């Protein structure tokens, strides 16, 4: 069924295709309308594969269908509990569900939650880690006691070869500091663009912890497209795209979060997630770029939590670049980020959360003098 008469058609597919808006006339009885989108970049051919860290309330087949429509390679579909409601129980198999052509993977795993200590995403589980939630509403049962800790959940996931992500970092903010200090996290997730979550992330990096950054939606209904925030992960040239390889490279920090822009960072050949070693104080050459179907205004290089270089466009551009030398005399980290005119909060998607259009890399770590 198609509406008759003159219509305006909007078509978009992820961040690697040019969106299309076109006016068409639908004839009486017409049942098909064929349109073609132009791909402006192909990240898979560059060994980058995208995934949503955090999805609820889809079935496995629905997750495949929606993610292929959004040009997304991986969906982490998470079981969880809301009191007496347990979701996606029937979808859990302990194995990835892989499309016939191999470029789309859905893995059903878990989000375990406690309302104060925090929430925890467990990827790649072979067996359930129980209890899913604890200590009363709105996560556990009414009147329930606190039966366990996030640290226990993390250990149980790692024992079976799973991966542990802190969702919507850093909230709830009870136990994340312990998880980071004890090395129990394989990554932290941003699903909003706020000064607070950036500052918290930078504080931990400044303490010397290596924390990969991932992006996800926490999708719970059709107001949020799967992959609106997504994690791009770089695989080695000789690596096959599999769920395990994707997760392993998240753990190595070879990631950037995207809510629209494609972003890159390089320190004299070192790539995102790498450790770049220098013998002593001096200068290093840093380059960054961001390119987007949604025009962006700001590209910044962050070093130890401070903006040290930037490129600006008042009217917005498809591509921004930075090439700068950075002086340093101690261990440090650098990352790149891109967004609207002031970076925070002034260029937004139209989803129900009004999320910012931005991208942020995981760091490159610079070790100075051993």
TrEMBL record:
This is Uncharacterized protein. The lineage of its organism: unclassified sequences, metagenomes, ecological metagenomes.
């Amino acid at each position: 069924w198609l509406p008759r008469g003159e219509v305006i058609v909007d078509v978009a597919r992820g961040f690697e295709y040019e969106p299309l808006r076109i006016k068409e006339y639908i004839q009486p009885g017409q049942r098909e309308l064929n349109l073609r989108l132009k791909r402006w970049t192909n990240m898979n051919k560059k060994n980058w594969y995208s995934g949503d860290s955090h999805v609820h309330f889809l079935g496995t087949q629905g997750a495949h269908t929606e993610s292929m429509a959004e040009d997304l390679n991986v969906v982490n579909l998470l079981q969880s509990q809301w009191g007496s409601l347990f979701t996606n129980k029937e979808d859990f198999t302990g194995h990835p569900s892989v499309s016939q052509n191999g470029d789309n993977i859905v893995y059903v795993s878990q989000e375990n939650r406690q309302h104060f200590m925090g929430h925890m995403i467990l990827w790649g589980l072979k067996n359930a880690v129980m209890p899913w939630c604890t200590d009363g509403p709105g996560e556990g049962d009414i009147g329930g006691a606190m039966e366990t800790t996030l640290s226990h959940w993390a250990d149980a996931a790692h024992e079976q070869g799973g991966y542990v992500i802190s969702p919507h970092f850093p909230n709830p903010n009870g136990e994340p500091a312990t998880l980071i200090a004890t090395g129990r996290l394989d990554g932290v997730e941003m699903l909003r663009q706020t000064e607070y979550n950036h500052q918290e992330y930078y504080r931990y990096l400044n303490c010397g912890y290596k924390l990969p950054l991932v992006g996800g939606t926490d999708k719970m209904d059709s107001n949020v497209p799967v992959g609106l925030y997504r994690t791009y992960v770089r695989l080695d040239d000789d690596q096959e795209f599999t769920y395990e390889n994707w997760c392993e490279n998240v753990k190595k920090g070879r990631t950037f979060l995207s809510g629209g822009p494609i972003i890159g960072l390089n320190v004299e050949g070192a790539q995102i997630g790498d450790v770049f070693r220098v013998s002593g104080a001096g200068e290093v050459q840093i380059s960054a770029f961001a390119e987007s179907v949604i025009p962006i205004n700001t590209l910044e290089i962050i070093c130890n939590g401070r903006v040290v270089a930037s490129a600006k466009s008042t009217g917005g551009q498809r591509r921004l670049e930075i090439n700068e030398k950075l002086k340093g005399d101690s261990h440090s980290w650098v990352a790149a980020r891109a967004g609207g005119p002031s970076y925070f909060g002034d260029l937004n998607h139209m989803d129900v959360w009004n999320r910012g259009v931005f991208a942020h890399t995981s760091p490159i770590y610079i070790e100075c003098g051993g």
